[in-house]
Amino acid sequence: MSNTINLLPSGGGANYRDPAVSPAGPTTTAPLDEATAERNAELVERFAAELYNAPADTILAWAHEYAPGPLVVTLSMENTVLAELAERHLPGADFLFLDTEYHFPETLDVAAEVERRYPGHRLVRATAQLTRAEQDEVYGPNLYLREPSACCRMRKVEPLAVHMSPYVGWITGLRRADGPTRAEAPALSLDATGRLKISPLVTWSLEDTEAFERDNDLIIHPLTRQGYPSIGCATCTMPVAEGEDPRAGRWAFANKTECGLHE
């Protein structure tokens, strides 16, 4: 990414909307019914410690048995390990992909391949209220550089929240090895809405992930073999040096390490 990009809107910048104010439309998750919320809390209280270091297969088998309703598998398309594991342990579960409109073309190619390879799972593509062009018009160009947290909120956090409403919980690809902000991530917890947040890969290393991909002939995101161990939007992701924090290339231009989905 060139550091010569003009970060400030030109021509009528004073008329752009404050990025702290999201566009009109839904931004939150519908509340769970009281019985489901109570059941989720009971499950976390009872099983979180037991599952903390459990293998992925055990965690997903638990989720299939105990979740009091439908779960959704969130896929960044950085890898397709969760899609493969869901095929084995969560038959019929929806897949959810946050299509920010800022992705690498390779990421979109992986999403299309996932849809073809796992036809038993509906791929839900969550998009923001505004298209990329509309966001530029309303908030000014290069919002991801000027206010990256606002851009992530509108293009990731809020779309995820809206699309999470039909589900009692979600399966995430969090790995403790991905960096200090995730070093103590639980395998099972409650999110802010009381939904189950289940992370079966928390104990996996990058090497474990690559070995599973190789052993199971999974769809490979080509950039993960080109110095991109952690992949987000093309505008905000850079390659990292060998041995560097895998997430060091995310928002390298800003004091930011998370998009807000796991905060």
From TrEMBL:
Residues reported in the UniProt entry to bind [4Fe-4S] cluster: C151, C152, C233, C236
Short name of one Pfam family: PAPS_reduct
EC class (word): oxidoreductase
Alphabetical UniProt keywords: Cytoplasm, Iron, Iron-sulfur, Metal-binding, Oxidoreductase
InterPro entries in the record: PAPS/APS_Rdtase, PAPS_reduct_dom, Rossmann-like_a/b/a_fold
Gene Ontology terms for molecular function: phosphoadenylyl-sulfate reductase (thioredoxin) activity
Primary location class: cytoplasm
Assigned EC number: 1.8.4.10
Reactions listed under catalytic activity: [thioredoxin]-disulfide + sulfite + AMP + 2 H(+) = adenosine 5'-phosphosulfate + [thioredoxin]-dithiol
Pathway noted in the entry: Sulfur metabolism; hydrogen sulfide biosynthesis; sulfite from sulfate
Superkingdom of the organism of origin: Bacteria
Boundaries of every Phosphoadenosine phosphosulphate reductase domain copy: 72-239
Active site: C259
Cofactor: [4Fe-4S] cluster
Cellular location(s): Cytoplasm
The record's free-text note on cofactor binding: Binds 1 [4Fe-4S] cluster per subunit.
Region (Disordered): 1-31
Family per record: Belongs to the PAPS reductase family. CysH subfamily.
Described purpose of this protein according to its UniProt entry: Catalyzes the formation of sulfite from adenosine 5'-phosphosulfate (APS) using thioredoxin as an electron donor.
NCBIfam families named in the record: cysH, PRK02090.1
Protein name: Adenosine 5'-phosphosulfate reductase
